[in-house]
Design brief:
Mean pLDDT: 90
Low-confidence stretches: none
Distance between the termini: 52 Å
Strand content: 5-15%
CATH superfamily of the largest domain: P-loop containing nucleotide triphosphate hydrolases
Largest sheet: 5 strands, parallel
CATH architecture of the largest domain: 3-Layer(aba) Sandwich
Helix content: 55-70%
Shape: elongated
Number of helices: 15
Bound molecules: zinc ion
Number of domains: 2
Order of helices and strands: HEHHEHEHEHEHHHHHHHHH
Number of strands: 5
Structural class: alpha/beta
Length: 320
């Protein structure tokens, strides 16, 4: 994918285009920004351009075609093996980079998840970042720049990737077959991440959301079994639980908005449910709930017992 097809990252891309045009590419870059905003796509576009010899890869030469299939012999992709990027992976990469390139002007590698370089692997990489063998191009990618070792940071040219504007996300979803209401909702819930918008935009996620919210509003302390089984089910998939709690926060925010007049509501397709909740809950109660959900999310992030956390949350929500 050439630069011209990447959405919403004109800042970093114009810096890279200038570097390509003037022949002043850095040895090592660090692309930082939240997940799903085009960091890796931009890294691939940069390598495509370098390999193809044009500022925008042409997309049709043998080199661009191999890049599109991620099958180029001079492209090396590195990802965490389990929780970390291990020192053996760095050593293997260094061996690869030490060979002459097969067909490209230089070798290139993308290290995805740079915050997962542990101390040993990070130290092993330092020398390579300073003087890459054969003038190789190294691009590190991270969604958590605070987790990247300072010694690594100081040896890379850092480019910041912004969260994407809601309209750009909605337009992209619509072009890709998710239209109307779901596209708008997914874009507004995604917090600037295209990846997240695509996940939410899938019919199933939106279907789940409605079912989940309806189920929650039906919970009662008088019937404790459904409450516990909801907690148990949700605790089994923590990532999904986090996602649904985020949706719940957005839903509760909408209840507040509705009580205050109704401007800017995100979950407009759930109006009957929103109206019901707005009718039965006071403003103070809604704010309390938002607080409870926030606490539960924090607890899940801290790896506190998920089932217990959700049980407590659901009991609190069922109380009123
Ligand atoms: Zn080409």
């Amino acid at each position: 994918m050439p630069f011209s097809r990447i959405i919403g990252q004109d800042g970093p891309i114009s810096i890279l285009r200038r570097a390509l045009a003037t022949g002043r590419l850095a040895h090592a870059y660090l692309f930082e920004g939240i997940e799903g905003v085009g960091k890796k796509a931009t890294a691939l576009a940069l390598i495509e351009a370098v390999f193809c010899g044009r500022e925008d890869g042409c997309g049709t030469c043998p080199s661009c075609r191999k890049m599109a299939a991620r099958q180029h012999p001079d492209l090396h992709l590195l990802e965490p093996d389990g929780a970390f990027i291990k020192i053996d992976q760095i050593r293997d990469l260094q061996k690869e980079l030490a060979y002459r390139p097969f067909e490209a002007p230089k070798k290139a590698c993308i290290i995805d998840g740079a915050e997962r370089l542990n101390q040993a692997a990070g130290n092993a990489l330092l020398k390579t970042l300073e003087e890459p063998p054969g003038n190789a191009l190294i691009i590190l990618v991270t969604a958590q720049v605070s987790g990247v070792l300072p010694t690594i940071l100081s040896r890379c040219q850092r480019l910041h990737f912004q969260s994407l504007p809601e309209e750009a996300i909605a337009a992209y979803l619509t072009e890709n077959g998710i239209d109307g209401e779901p596209a708008r909702i997914a874009a507004s819930l995604a917090g600037g991440s295209m990846k997240k918008a695509l996940e939410i935009g899938k019919d199933t996620a939106l279907g789940d959301r409605k079912q989940f919210l309806e189920r929650l509003s039906g919970l009662s302390l008088l019937e404790i079994t459904p409450l516990f089984s909801a907690a148990e089910e949700l605790a089994a998939d923590k990532e999904k639980a986090m996602e649904l709690l985020e949706l719940l926060t957005s839903f509760l925010r909408d209840v507040l908005l509705l009580k205050g007049g109704g401007d800017g509501i995100v979950n407009a397709d759930l109006m009957p449910l929103l109206e019901r909740e707005a009718g039965r809950l006071s403003q103070t109660r809604v704010m309390e709930r938002i607080g409870h959900v926030g606490e539960a999310r924090q607890a899940l992030l801290r790896n506190v017992n998920a089932r217990l956390t959700l049980e407590v949350l659901f009991m609190r929500l069922a109380k009123s």
